Amino acid sequence: MGSKERIARLKEETRINILDASLDIVKDEGWQSLSMRKIADKIEYTAPIIYEYFANKEGILLELTRKGYILLTASVRKAMNGLSEPAAQLEAMWIAYWDFAFENRELYQLMFGVDMNCCELKKIMPEAEVSNQLYFEIIKEVMEDEDPPEDLICRKYYTFWSVIHGLISINMVNKGRGMEMNEQILKDAIKGIIKYIND
């Protein structure tokens, strides 16, 4: 391996270490505690080194958000693969979304949290739209209308998202009825929306 390749590999490793350290800090202390100084201390570098990779904390948040959307899309794709019935695919996709939220709690909070700039980030991040498009395509297949209008598909998507995001949010602040009951509520909600998707 040449010196250029080695330098590039080391730079990428440092970049990944910065992101991993950021996520570790957040898991231990919450998003409000994340700072460039804490990241530098965690990876045992000086703060100016962090700035060589990310202009500011927002740059780190943006990259972690991108990572979250890539992981979410992979989970949703995996859930729908192997199922041929669109309604079954849609149910599996929303359950995968639910599972992602609790397996990647901190990333989910960053991607969709009330205190985060998720709407602004989505405008500049194509990765944020990929999983949405998967849902749109399957919702369109479930609908009886051969060519449903885009705004109707969008409305159905946001009906699903509102219910599921609401359940996730309730559980993240420990106000739910327990995971088992809430998973049943989730399944009931998905089946109910699918049943009435053509109304």
What does this structure look like?
By secondary structure, this protein is mainly α. It folds into 2 domains: 1-54, Arc Repressor Mutant, subunit A (Orthogonal Bundle); 58-195, Tetracycline Repressor, domain 2. Helices cover 78% and strands 0% of the residues.
Note the beta-strand portion. under 5%
User: How many individual helices?
Assistant: 10
Low-pLDDT runs of 5+ residues are: 114-120
Rounded mean pLDDT score: 87
Helix content: over 70%
Oligomer classification = single chain
Task: List strands and helices in order, with pairings.
Elements: H1 3-29, H2 36-43, H3 47-53, H4 57-80, H5 86-103, H6 105-112, H7 118-124, H8 127-142, H9 150-172, H10 179-195
Helix pairs in contact: 1-2, 2-3, 4-5, 4-6, 4-8, 5-6, 5-8, 5-9, 5-10, 8-9, 9-10
What key phrases describe this protein's structure?
single chain; mainly alpha; Arc Repressor Mutant, subunit A; 2 domains; 10 helices; about 80% helix; MT1864/Rv1816-like_C; transcription; transcription regulation; DNA-binding; DNA binding
Task: Please outline what is shown here.
The chain has 199 residues and is mainly α. The protein has helices at residues 3-29, 36-43, 47-53, 57-80, 86-103, 105-112, 118-124, 127-142, 150-172, 179-195.
